[in-house]
Here is the input.
Amino acid sequence: MRTLYILIIIFSFLITISCQNKESDQKLKNVGILLPETINDQSWNTKGYESLLGIQTEFGVDVFYKEEVKSLNTIRKTIIEFQQQDVNLVFGHGNIYAKYFVEIQNEYPFIHFVTFNGDAEGQSFTSLHFKGRAMGFFGGMIASGMSKTNKVGIIAAFPWQPEIEGFESGVKFQNNNVQVITSYTNDWANEQKALSILDEFLNEGVDVVYPAGDGYSVAVIEKLKRKGLYAVGFVTDQYNLGKATVLTSTVQHVDQLYILAARQFNNNELSYGNLYFDMQDDVISMGKYSAEVPEQLKQSVQSAIDYYVESGQLPNKEEL
Here is the structure.
């Protein structure tokens, strides 16, 4: 009986030490990010890389990145490389990583995985979600108010994007006579398909376009600039791509959200599962306005934004 009692004490002690070690590993060490495309795309992947540098600046940790990571084998290989660099927080910069993180998370018990717009399952995986409907709504208001042909278009990647319905609602709220034409690339980065859709839009008289796909928005804006037409930027503030072309941008502040997630992780406060963020969290905003946009229209949109932030309702009384 005495032997059994001693074994129980030893076993309890080992469990306590194990839990303490695991808890201590929750302090932020080093950070890695997986990117689906290149960091030079001037949109989503550039934003991810800049966000990583923001974490490095705030926490003084080492950061690592890997571009064009799209397969399970490449992900596994990269995670092993990260692990050797003492990384314990890994961002998968896009929803494509969600299914892979669900599958591999148990292989790396001291790494916390974070991705965007995925469905998080398990005890080592968090998915961050931007609520895109409101930003799409306000982008739609601007597009509608600036259209001279009463035809605007949205080139979206996938039908599930919440900013699509938001954009369509915002257009109609601003001017019910404006027609919205919507088409999909079914790919975040298919420039050829996006430009082909743009040609179709232009043939139909569209004069303002919302390219709601991070990998092709720059190419679309550049063509609109050559045509002397308007765009609403997507994800990043794309004002500098064409100050007379980009009316404003619907900006997702990935850098601020990443820093928030890293801060919560470092404080052992980062929840598992799906987390949602919006303008009220200061991680979504409108970008810089072109001088082409009349002051009255800007004020109208800002009033709508203020109302939404305070009430949680869009100005058409749609509650999100």
The longest strand covers residues 246-252. The chain has two domains: 7-130+255-281, 133-252+290-311. The chain has ten helices and twelve strands.
